[in-house]
């Protein structure tokens, strides 16, 4: 039995844990990185990357399918087995890259085991070994939730952690959960020829504000049914899984659960860590330091359920690792503007801070259903709200459902990070004809509400209609 002594022990070798260990070590601390498998990050193995590989295949099929509107005639011939083979092959390449970086860790840093707290600064490993650490970082990630109500059909249940292991695409699938994961996978599978029906227990999808949720709902339901405010019950059926909901039922070959990803706290014995826990048994922490209460325990990534996306996990791991190495001299970090993207088509995004009361801010609107470039692309659908605070129109938040929203969201996030006003953004270059050009409409809305103006707006030089996002009539900027 071994007794390890270290400055910083990190539990979990995902994105947050790898960042925490690296930055603690770079700060001069001795480190241990403890993980039961070192299988690669959630993003590379079962999250961001394999889902985008599936979406890429779906996009290719949809491009062929929609060719008729451009005068092209063809139909996609989807080889499900080949699609899934490519997903796994490239997924494995991404995972291999992560494992390669883990293999380069200094000798003695990586410890393969499960860990649990045995008191402040002390861990017990399943091997019987112990760890004494001056500071500890919890970076255990999260896992797909499989409610007990679906236990009777568990052999036919898929999650994002098992879907990509399918040898072929199913003929039909019921999807439980209308969050980003459920929506992305449901649309991708539908576009690849799977008969999909999605059930969401609330009146919104994608975690979006009502306006953007309604806009995305309108686009997606052209492709597959979505039942809002609906709880479906599952039961075994000779042909698969029978889902029953008010007034209806249907049989599906498989069931995809996308009902959330709670933090992995099971078996950690957090009650022995000497930290404050909330009513759900999760650590109370400071999002600018990642510190749990005033202890030498820090928490980062999906484990804290605050901003469960990869770039935030990396940032939080960095903050946690540096502060764990420096403890008790903890420093507060300036966090980046929040940014989340859902990779449906059209995409959806939320940036910055959305107002609780619309009367507390200025709001500009863009309707991408009548935006020039979107119409040319055959993707004219979506709605964008941009919010600003103060009399100067400083941008504070935005919600989008729009083609190319992943790129538009970055532009808005950068502008917010730089503290720009609507007028200052309008003074930046906008190329014509682009999707980004449509943002000018919302920015001008804000300027009109705040009384701001600039060289882009003169009473004697009205803008062509297209530059307001409407049509190409009268435009000579080619």
TrEMBL record:
Keyword tags: FAD, Flavoprotein, Oxidoreductase
Entries under Pfam families matching the protein: Pyr_redox_2, Pyr_redox_dim
Top-level taxon: Bacteria
Domain FAD/NAD(P)-binding: 7-315
Regions that span the bilayer: none
UniProt-listed InterPro entries: FAD/NAD-bd_sf, FAD/NAD-binding_dom, FAD/NAD-linked_Rdtase_dimer_sf, Mn/Fe_SOD_N_sf, Pyr_nuc-diS_OxRdtase, Pyr_nucl-diS_OxRdtase_dimer
Listed name of the protein: Dihydrolipoyl dehydrogenase
Organism: Lutimaribacter marinistellae
């Amino acid at each position: 039995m071994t007794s390890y002594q270290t400055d910083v022990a990190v539990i979990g070798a995902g994105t947050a844990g790898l960042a925490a260990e690296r930055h603690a070590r770079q700060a001069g601390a001795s480190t241990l990185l403890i993980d039961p498998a070192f299988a690669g990050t959630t993003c590379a193995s079962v999250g961001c990357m394999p889902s985008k590989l599936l979406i890429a295949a779906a996009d290719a099929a949809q491009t062929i399918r929609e060719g008729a509107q451009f005068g092209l005639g063809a139909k996609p011939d989807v080889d499900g087995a080949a699609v899934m083979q490519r997903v796994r092959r490239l997924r494995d390449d991404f995972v291999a890259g992560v494992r390669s970086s883990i293999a380069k860790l200094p000798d003695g840093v990586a410890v393969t085991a499960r860990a649990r707290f045995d008191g402040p600064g002390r861990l017990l490993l399943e091997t019987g070994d112990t760890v004494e650490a001056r500071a500890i970082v919890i970076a255990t990630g999260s896992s797909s939730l499989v409610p007990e109500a679906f236990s009777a059909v568990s052999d036919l249940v898929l999650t994002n952690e098992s879907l990509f292991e399918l040898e072929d695409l199913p003929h039909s699938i019921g999807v439980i959960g209308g969050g980003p994961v459920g929506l992305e996978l449901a649309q991708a599978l539908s576009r690849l020829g799977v008969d999909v029906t999605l059930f969401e227990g609330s009146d919104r999808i994608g975690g979006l504000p009502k306006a953007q949720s309604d806009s995305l709902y309108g686009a997606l339901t052209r492709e597959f049914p979505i039942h809002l405010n609906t709880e479906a019950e599952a039961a075994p059926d000779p042909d698969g899984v029978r889902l029953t909901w008010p007034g209806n039922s249907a049989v599906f070959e498989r069931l995809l659960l996308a009902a959330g990803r709670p933090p992995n706290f099971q078996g950690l014995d957090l009650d022995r860590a000497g930290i404050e826990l909330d009513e759900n048994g999760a650590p109370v922490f400071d999002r600018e330091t990642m510190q749990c209460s005033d202890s030498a325990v820090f928490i980062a990534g999906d484990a804290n359920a605050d901003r469960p996306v990869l770039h935030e996990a990396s940032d939080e791991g960095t903050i946690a690792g540096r502060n764990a190495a420096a403890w008790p001299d903890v420093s507060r970090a300036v966090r980046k503007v929040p940014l989340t993207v859902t990779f449906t088509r059209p995409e959806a995004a939320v940036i910055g801070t959305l107002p609780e009361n619309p009367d507390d801010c200025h709001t500009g609107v863009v309707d991408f259903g009548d935006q020039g470039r979107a119409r040319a692309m055959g993707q004219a659908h979506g709605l964008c709200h941009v919010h600003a605070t103060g009399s100067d129109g400083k941008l504070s938040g935005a919600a989008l459902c729009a083609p190319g929203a992943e790129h538009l969201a970055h532009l808005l996030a950068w502008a917010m990070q730089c503290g720009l006003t609507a007028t200052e953004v309008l003074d930046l270059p906008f190329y014509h004809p682009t999707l980004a050009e449509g943002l000018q409409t919302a920015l001008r809305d804000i300027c009109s509400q705040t009384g701001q103006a600039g060289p882009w707006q003169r009473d004697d030089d009205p803008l062509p209609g297209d530059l307001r996002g409407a049509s190409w009539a009268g435009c000579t900027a080619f």
